[in-house]
Amino acid sequence: MAPHPCDFVTYKERHVVECTFGKLKHYRRMAFRFEQKSSHYMEMLAFAAVLLWLR
Question: Domain of life here (predicted)?
Answer without folding.
Answer: Bacteria
